Amino acid sequence: AGSAVHELVVEDVSVRFGGVQALDRVSFTVTPGSLHALIGPNGAGKSTCLNVLSGVYAPTTGGVRYGDHDLTRLPQHRIAAAGISRTFQNLALSPGETVLDNLLVARHRYMRTGFLSAALRTPRSRREAAEHRAAAERTAALLGLDRLLHSRVGELPYGDRKRVELARALCAEPGLLLLDEPVAGMNHGESLRMEQAIGTVQRELGISIVLVEHDMRFVMGLADRVTVLDFGRRIADGTPAEVQRDPHVLRAYLGD
Ligand code: ADP
Ligand code: MG
């Protein structure tokens, strides 16, 4: 029942904030079902790029295409409707509610079968409620959250909460998932679990993932392809092995 998985084409995208050229004619293509990493030093333009892809900012010039959809100037909700989902910061979760309730709220929001119709308890709404619950439980199990379904989100350790955020984004059943620094602030064990969770999502769901990351090492074991940004420009693009030995990349990271 998930969204179709399309090729994403980012073409010559520029974004300017006052005097800052945050992105300068950046292009890359994300193959359907692949994990594409966007890496680079702080201030390189990675988050700006993700914000363009999810409709938070419109590019100054250039375009974004997802299959037959031209996303270039679409608002966030239209991009979400095209099957593109992203994680937001912790505030998107309700800390006083359980993991299961957070996932169910996300599913109801995305699937547009509100609590009102559920409250009428028609046979159809009851069947849909059971389907939502089964889907939320499957997503939780995929990310190793099955034993935490009835824990309050606010009482979970940081690493688990970040996996709940990931699960929440997956409740929209996207074809393309956008992740901005999913392991920022995590300890080693938490990073490993997140890395496993992301790998599992890609393998099991077959969706595309664009992963923004500052730490080059983290993406090397996960990514199919890597685009490297520095000062808003694309300085390299290739397989992890290719970009890892690229002199421009080494210079950008040594200077960081
Ligand atoms: P990264 O995620 O790679 O660290 P960003 O995309 O956040 O980099 O930022 C790229 C550049 O654009 C930086 O110089 C940053 O200060 C600037 N920038 C980002 N967002 C804004 C904004 N909303 N207003 C003004 N400048 C911004
Ligand atoms: Mg950033």
UniProtKB/TrEMBL annotation:
Residues 8-256 form the ABC transporter domain. Belongs to the ABC transporter superfamily. This is ATP-binding cassette domain-containing protein. It comes from Streptomyces apricus. The lineage of its organism: Bacteria, Bacillati, Actinomycetota, Actinomycetes, Kitasatosporales. The chain holds residues 335 to 590 of 596 of the full protein.
